[in-house]
Amino acid sequence: MMGLCVFFLLGWWLFGAGLEEAWGGEVLIARFEESRQWAWLAGIGLLVADLLLPIPGTVVMSALGAVYGFWLGGLIAAAGSMLAGVLGYGVGRFFKEGFSRKWLGARDFEKGRALFDRNGALVVAVSRALPILPEVLSCMAGLLRMPFGKFSLALACGSVPMGFLFAWIGTVGRESPGWGIAFSLLVPAVLWGAAAILRRRA
User: Considering the entire predicted model, what is its pTM?
Assistant: First the structure.
């Protein structure tokens, strides 16, 4: 798992600042408005690209809400997050179990599988609101052979609320920019805190 974290953190270190500047909230909303007919597809593509590049997913979701409104923007954001998670799972599942055991080490593989058997659904669901971890945990779920049905349900439980939540933040930000900025900062902080508490209890 540390290897995957390092891989995604390296992407943030190499490209994060440039991408955040190029795809900031107002810039992204303006670009989506210019091509409103296809912006939904671009939004989904950016959320999927977050598997490889440090795309600020919550900013994309908020921009979709600002352009398309709460219901449609939330639906598109949730769909993009779901698709990214399924593809990440597929990447992990692509590698055979023997490779996973060798790469992670037999002991860590068994510990990881036990963790996913016990708390995998909760971990996957909560991770959708956090940076970097969604990509890592989706790939890990595939590597550790988490049942796809269980993974999909957990993914939906995390992706759908997050998609609509950040779409709502985008709509609020469009009408009251100050509140939009406040929620964009406050919500991730609260979710990080909740995730830390759940992790300690688990």
Answer: 0.73
